[in-house]
Specification:
single chain; 489 residues; alpha+beta; five-stranded parallel β-sheet; 35% helix
């Protein structure tokens, strides 16, 4: 391995930035982790609302999230205590017109066969369609020659309307946060490959008991600090500039940093969301084009083939043109929202199982897609239900009072418990940029920017997965690995 980087700044302490910081600290680098918010975790973090600590969105992880689980353990998290593990399932409220699909604890693929044979609420043709989908996808090695929408894929595989409604559409929304008519079939197949198509344990569903901050970001920050690094929250990076010797300078603001904080590093990983990273890249390109800039565009260093490829693809003439093209690519990602509605009831209110799928029907005011019993995950939250709406732009547009009332009414009707229509407390949290729209054949950038010692990390970078915690962690790890293996490391 090449000589390790002496000092690295990681800009953004979401899950990608935390993953990169842990990997670099483990390798002996001097890491400085900078986060503009006061709370670690980025778009998957805890928030305080009226004295209650909740997450900005209810999450489900999978046993297939190998990198996330590995880094959680490395950072010192007790994974078994931090999450509830349940077998793969899609279970609707009994009598509500759904289905009951639960994988038994059998070796793969017998667990799926068992779930299919025992599934309630599915007709014979539905079960045959599901078996046909699984068999054909395995035969294709879960790959498509040409990407298409999930709707097109389901039509090609002759899936029944009921199976689409109760299985494929909810899974696509939960995994890709993109409606099936414009979601990437290839990315959807990749998720299914590593869950339905993998070993039985990979298909397990992992529901966080701990809040999202305690689940990884807090432990990651502590790990960095223990290994000689520094973590700064409330620190907004405002500019970066190249220095002689292929080093970088960052400028940042924040009460903890002082009015005019600058620091020099051997390398920088931009682990913010795509829009924020694009802003810094555009600012970098503009500053280097300025007549009084010390570094003219034809002297801005570039990484050989990686830069040449990017310039050729963009039709650019210089590293700065390629940088501008990269910024434009990041700005082009379309955001998708996720909404979580928390409703507090008497501590004795419980669901029969930790979570149910819900049949959403916006025309009837039924927006909820999944409901979680937080009390079964954390005793301190007894009586709290969390209802999730993926791709929630239309729902969020209703406003908090209207949406929370509609969701409470939906729970009362579906669960046949009228008292649920009147929670003692409710709040709606919408993460407007929770993910990017995972459309077919979407071009996603590599970790490398083409400039030595400057890399990207985030769930939007090139990879098999959609914008999930696992894709963020994988991207952070990949950026760290690339930096450590490069000649500039």
């Amino acid at each position: 391995m090449a000589k390790q980087t002496r000092s690295v700044a990681v800009v953004g302490a979401g899950w990608a930035g935390c993953a990169a910081a842990v990997e670099l600290a483990r390798a002996g680098c001097q890491v400085t982790l900078l986060e503009s918010a006061r709370t670690l975790g980025g778009r998957a973090r805890r928030v305080e609302m009226d004295g209650r600590l909740v997450d900005n969105g209810q999450h489900i992880m999978l046993g297939a999230y190998s990198e996330t689980l590995r880094l959680m353990k490395l950072a010192g998290v007790d994974v078994k205590a931090a999450m509830l593990t349940v077998p793969l399932q899609m279970r609707y409220v009994p009598g509500a017109g759904g289905m009951d699909f639960v994988a038994p604890r059998l070796p793969a693929p017998l667990h799926l066969l068992g779930a299919l044979l025992r599934a309630g609420g599915l007709a014979r043709e539905d079960k045959m369609a599901l078996a046909r989908f699984s068999t054909t996808a395995r035969w294709m090695d879960w790959r498509l020659n040409t990407d298409c929408s999930v709707d097109d894929l389901l039509e090609r595989f002759d899936q029944t309307p009921r199976l689409i409604q109760l299985m494929w559409r909810p899974l696509c929304l939960a995994a890709l946060n993109t409606p099936t008519d414009r979601a990437s079939a290839q990315v959807f197949l990749s998720v299914l490959r590593d869950s339905l198509g993998a070993r039985r344990k990979a298909s397990d569903m992992l529901i966080p008991r701990a809040d999202l901050g305690a689940l990884f970001p807090d432990a990651a920050a502590a790990y960095v600090t223990r290994h000689g690094g520094a973590v700064h929250t409330g620190a907004k990076v405002t500019a970066l500039a190249p220095l002689p010797g292929k080093r970088w300078q960052l400028a940042a603001t924040g009460s903890a940093l002082g009015a005019a904080w600058t620091a020099d590093f051997d390398a920088v990983i931009l682990a913010q969301g795509a829009p924020a990273s694009a802003t810094l890249l555009r600012s970098l390109a503009a500053s280097q084009r300025s007549p009084d800039s010390a570094a003219h565009s034809d002297r801005l260093p570039a990484d050989g083939a990686t830069h040449s490829d990017r310039v050729a693809a963009a039709g650019a003439d210089s590293p700065l043109d390629a940088l501008t093209a990269l910024a434009a690519q990041l700005e082009a990602f379309a955001p998708e929202a996720i909404t979580t509605c928390y409703l507090q009831y008497d501590a004795g209110v419980r669901l029969e199982i930790p979570f149910y799928a819900l049949i959403d029907n916006p025309a009837a005011g039924h927006w909820g897609q999944f409901v979680f019993d937080r009390g079964q995950l954390d005793a301190a939250q007894a009586g709290m239900l969390a209802v999730v709406i993926s791709a929630s732009g239309a729902a969020a547009g209703l406003g908090q009072p209207v949406l929370s009332a509609a969701i409470a009414a939906q729970l009362a009707a579906v669960l046949r418990r009228p008292e649920l229509a009147q929670p003692s407390w409710s709040r709606v949290i919408t993460e407007k940029r929770a993910t990017f729209a995972c459309s077919p054949a979407l071009a996603r950038p590599a970790n490398a920017t083409g400039l030595p010692g400057l890399l990207l990390a985030g769930d939007y970078t090139a990879g098999d997965y959609p914008a999930t915690l696992e894709s963020a962690v994988r991207s952070g790890g990949a950026a760290a690995k690339e930096l450590l293996q490069s000649k500039h490391g």
